Amino acid sequence: MTPRPALAEPLTAEAVQCGLTTSFVGRDLRLFETVGSTNTVLRQLAAQGAPDGAVVLAEEQTAGRGRLNRTWESRPGVGVYLSVLLRPQAPVPRPHVFTFLPAVAVTRALRAVSGLPIFIHWPNDVMLRGRKVAGILAEMRSVDGRPREVVLGIGMNINHSPADLSPALRDTATSLAIASGRSWSRAAIVRALLVELESAWNRLGQDGPGALVDDWRKLSPSHFGKPVVVAGGSAGEIRGTTRGVDEDGALLLERADGGLERVAFGEMRRVRSA
Predict the structure, then answer these.
(1) Where are the domains of the chain?
(2) Shortest CA distance to 11 belongs to which of 49, 62, 55?
(3) Starting at the edge strand that comes first in sequence, how are the strands of the sheet with 146-157 ordered?
(4) Pick from 33, 98, 103, 273: most CB atoms within 10 A?
(5) pTM of the model
């Protein structure tokens, strides 16, 4: 059996916040050994008045969740499992930004720290060499149709060995350690992520959702000209060729008959050309 790379520094709140350059994201950071779900804990803290940019970080989740009601495996000591609270101060014209924004931030942070070829797979799966390395779950509380609290849940596979992945995931998931053969500082990755989240949030406020979508497109080569199957949306399973995303973040899919399908929700899977 291939030995596990030596573990990097332990994950602590002090290690994350040492040298952190953000103005508000991660300034209130709470680290737990074990929680059911970081999103659940942060939603509870938000109801008690947790500030904008508050972060809940856990060594282990026993009930971690991903998109489409899936379980997110959260093995202790090897991954990054966190949630970030955003409190929009102005109306957000296109709610899909809360799907795209964390995907952009996670991808940029992992690229910056590791130098590995990491990309976004519509809508917000973060992929490394064709396998999932990070997942995102955004949850909102709205009042009068306006988002008041947004909790961004993020799980990243960092120092997992193949044995740390369940048999069901070994063909579809990976980690930075599996891809590189070395371990990584989880504190450095969290710190880079918080910086990228604040940067993306500020860019959204300054330049609008169009700029964020443009950033997402640059990091998602599969969104145009790729044969795919999209499943899980209201239209069932659809095959076609990707033709970009629209201003609302929906995937545009050209069917074999030449028609254009707009898919607002679902899961995209690449297929080989005939």
Answers:
(1) 13-218, 222-270
(2) 55
(3) 29-35, 55-61, 79-86, 146-157, 131-143, 125-128, 118-121
(4) 103
(5) 0.90
Residue identified by tokens 């995102």 is 136
Residue 237's pLDDT is 85
Phi-psi region of 69 (alpha: psi -120 to 50; beta: other; left: phi over 0): left
**C-beta of residue 17 within 8 angstroms of C-beta of residue 26:** yes
Share of the chain above pLDDT 90, in %: 64
Element (H, E) at 261: strand 260-263
Q: What CATH number was assigned to the domain covering residues 13-218?
A: 3.30.930.10
- CATH of 222-270, picked from 3.90.190.20, 3.40.30.10, 2.30.30.100, 2.40.50.100, is 2.30.30.100
Q: Do the bridges between strand 29-35 and strand 55-61 make them parallel or antiparallel, or are there none, so unpaired? A: parallel
* SS3 of 42-101: HHHHHHCCCCCCCEEEEEEECCCECHHHCECCCCCCCEEEEEEEECCCCCCCCCCHHHHH
Q: Using an 8 Å Cβ cutoff, are 74 and 157 in contact?
A: no
Please state, as a whole number, how many other Cβ atoms lie within 10 Å of the Cβ of residue 12: 13
pLDDT tens profile 96-117: 889 999 999 999 999 999 999 9
